[in-house]
Amino acid sequence: MRLALNLGYWGAQDGAVNDPADALALVHRAEQLGYAAVWVAEAYGSDAPTILSWLAAQTSRIHLGSAVMQIPARTPAMTAMTAATLDRLSGGRFRLGLGVSGPQVSEGWHGVRFAQPLERTREYVEIVRMALARRPVRYDGRHYRLPLPDGPGRTLRLTVRPLRERIPVYLAALGPRNLRLAGEIADGWLAVFFSPRHAEESLAYLREGRGGSLEGFDIVPTVPLVVGDDLARCADAVRGYAALYIGGMGSREQNFYHRLAVRMGYAEAADAIQDAFLARRYAEAAAAVPEEFIDAVSLLGPTERIAQRLAEFAAAGVTTLAVTPFASDLEAKLAALEAVAKAVARADLLDEA
């Protein structure tokens, strides 16, 4: 199992990680410790490619991934251009993570209808791969037509040659149909709220998409990390994050994270979290997140306990574990990265491939 760092949404909230120097210090320490990759997110604040190009210029070995670049934010051709450019600038270290986001962001921020997200994702990835292979881009799909059939558009080919023949593509997916699609068309899965105890159902859908085997497929959950002796206090550090996703990332009718919590057996708690969050009772929403749920999807506690949990994630099929350290200052976050690296090495879980 490889280790990775997820920086999340840069600049989204107050805190040390939003200082560029602090973010770079985390990435440099991760690289020194042998972490395989650093992942960067985007929503409606900072964009992932700008941060990744900045990191590429100041690192040498660690891979750089988007988790995710939003499909409604860019045409597939623009995504291929960005991926090819980042691959060359980074010396072949870029990993392209994609996701459709949610209806609130897709329609409210980007002005792109959220209808038929699976079909759009399939077409999008096909065009991106076609462009990155430097084939003439001709496509006649339901959502994308290139060139447009009734104008002066020409069939074009990407002028920049990526450093690698195949840039790995990852999909963020939660529901059964999305997971099957990720298994079918992607090289890896970007997971959130991944619980080793509940993982087999999701992995089964991925296997269906891949025709039975996950060999060579990268399972990459992002996992909150809090090192400390008091388990309850460690869980408290993650409560606001969990409440935001379960309660506020979407509407009452359409929230994929709420649905995931329900499938994991936390329906009553998920409803309480959502009710409080949508009523803007944010402290109440955070308090309603069960400690059991937080512990299931996080790395919490002293180093010895984290080592045990790391073994559980590896046994559940995780191939790259992306940690997000939750701490109040940079030094604590750096110490958390070091603690996980030592725990993985001590448990002989590290895969340097």
Question: Can you describe what's shown?
Answer:
With 353 residues, the protein is an alpha/beta fold. It has two domains: 2-220 and 302-346, TIM Barrel; 229-298, no CATH class. Helix content is 45%, strand content 15%. The protein contains 14 helices and twelve strands. It has helices at residues 20-32, 48-56, 76-89, 103-108, 117-132, 176-185, 199-210, 231-248, 256-263, 267-278, 282-287, 291-296, 303-315, 330-346; strands at 2-6, 37-40, 63-66, 69-70, 94-99, 139-140, 145-146, 169-172, 188-192, 218-227, 299-301, 320-325. The strands form two sheets. Strands 1-2-3-5-8-9-10-12 form an eight-stranded parallel beta barrel, surrounded by seven helices. Strands 6-7 form a two-stranded antiparallel sheet. Helix 2 links the parallel strand 2 (37-40) and strand 3. Helix 3 (76-89) crosses helix 5 (117-132), helix 5 (117-132) packs parallel to helix 6 (176-185) and helix 13 crosses helix 14. The mean pLDDT is 94.
Lay out the secondary structure.
Layout lengths: L1 E5 L13 H13 L4 E4 L7 H9 L6 E4 L2 E2 L5 H14 L4 E6 L3 H6 L8 H16 L6 E2 L4 E2 L22 E4 L3 H10 L2 E5 L6 H12 L7 E10 L3 H18 L7 H8 L3 H12 L3 H6 L3 H6 L2 E3 L1 H13 L4 E6 L4 H17 L7
Parallel strand pairs: 1-2, 1-12, 2-3, 3-5, 4-5, 5-8, 8-9, 9-10, 10-11, 10-12
Antiparallel strand pairs: 6-7
Helix pairs in contact: 1-14, 3-5, 5-6, 6-7, 8-10, 9-10, 13-14
